[in-house]
Amino acid sequence: MRILYSLIYTLAFLVILPYFLIAGLIRQKYFASAAERFGFIPQCNSEPSIWVHTVSVGEFLAAKPLLRKIQEKYPNIPLFISTTTITGQKLAAEFLPDRTFYFPFDWSWCVRKIFQSIKPGLILIFETEIWPNFLWEAHDQKIPVILINGRISDRSFSRYRFVRKLIPGFTECWMQSIEDASRMKQIEKEPQRIKVMGNIKFEYQPQTLSPALQRLIQDWKGSSLLLIAGSTMPGEEEILLDSFKALRSDLPLKMLIAPRHPERFNEVVLLIRQNNLEVSRRSENQSSDTPIMILDTIGELAGVYEMADLVFIGGTLRYHGHNPIEPAYYGKAIISGPKYKNFRAVFDEFLSNKAIIVTEDITSAIRNLANDSERRKTLGNAAHELVRKNQGAVGFVLQNLRKYLDDRSIMEPGTKSSVR
């Protein structure tokens, strides 16, 4: 089965290789990370380490409070972080210089090279990344692999259920919700290894907004209400711009748009100008009296939510949603479209606690909240309280990691049965 999978993976890689080459040439992506993705990383380590994998910015930011606690409690155990995306890698490298790298391609020899370089005694995977050769290699070398903050969406459930029959599973699976755990129990061969930990994203700890950025946003915002549209996706900016044009004639409203993908920054700026609206860019670091600003930087959106009066959650009009916890932390009034199945458990909690407005009519929702400061306050307070009462996932993880980290013999690769 490993040979068949590797053959299929290789053929798929060859099929999409032209795309990567073209994207690399046009957007300056992929080339810089190619060596690391093949397993050639500069890091060398002589003792057992902890390898933490976070796919992108969202997963990394969610993991940061836990990573800090691990560093505090186990300062003598080396910690390494891998990411899949460029944006995630940038933030991880700022947090842990010289101990970050890109997750390798899923060929056994690539994975083995990483194992040889950093000598992981324990691997922590955030949010359900299933790579067969990676899991096979960890199983062969008896390295425990723990799934943390695991979730299984409607879309991925059947795919994971099929793949799981063909490969080793995780040593343990710590899932976000009862529903996620129930699904994982239908996938994993040993359901007793599955626990509900809650959602670590409720442990969100924002980076402090710099005084310079605070002044920039406040000077630009002035006395207007600020709508922040975070992590927007293709096709959503057009809808938001139509709503904004309909509203700004009778509302003191400004809008900050943060596209989900950095490669779309210029595209969205052009779209705004085609709609005969003036736009400024945060990267220009100048306050100008434009109705719209593009947040064209990496890692600042979470902190900028503090400046909002209203927040729209991107990905909920055309795709499968993004996480509303970051603006909820600041007690902001949150509006979402009806598409959120990738975060259904989180949204269900927000809805049951009357901490979010979900609607297809974004224009009316913005208008109603903009004209009702008490409603904004009530909605924001409910969101903030929901975040507060759901905290505790970091404590769960630390408590359950003790059996792996307090007994250093377990951290010696090859000494304990691991991936099942």
The gist of it:
The chain has helices at 2-27, 34-37, 57-73, 86-95, 108-118, 132-140, 154-164, 178-187, 211-221, 236-247, 265-274, 301-304, 325-329, 344-352, 362-370, 373-389, 393-405, and strands at residues 49-53, 79-83, 100-102, 120-126, 145-150, 172-175, 194-196, 225-232, 253-259, 279-281, 292-294, 310-313, 333-336, 357-358. The chain is of the alpha/beta class and 420 residues long. Helix 3 runs parallel beside helix 4 and helix 10 packs across helix 15 (362-370).
Q: How large is the radius of gyration?
A: 22 Å
Distance separating the two termini: 16 Å
Q: How does the helix and strand content classify structurally?
A: alpha/beta
- Binned strand content: 15-25%
CATH topology of the largest domain, anyone? Answer: Rossmann fold
Strand order of the largest sheet: 3-2-1-4-5-6-7
Mind telling me the CATH superfamily name of the largest domain?
3-Deoxy-D-manno-octulosonic-acid transferase, N-terminal domain
Assembly classification: single chain
* Form type: globular
Instruction: Describe the largest sheet.
Output: 7 strands, parallel
Integer count of domains:
2
CATH architecture of the largest domain: 3-Layer(aba) Sandwich
Count up the helices. 17
Number of strands: 14
Low-confidence stretches: none
Name the average pLDDT: 90
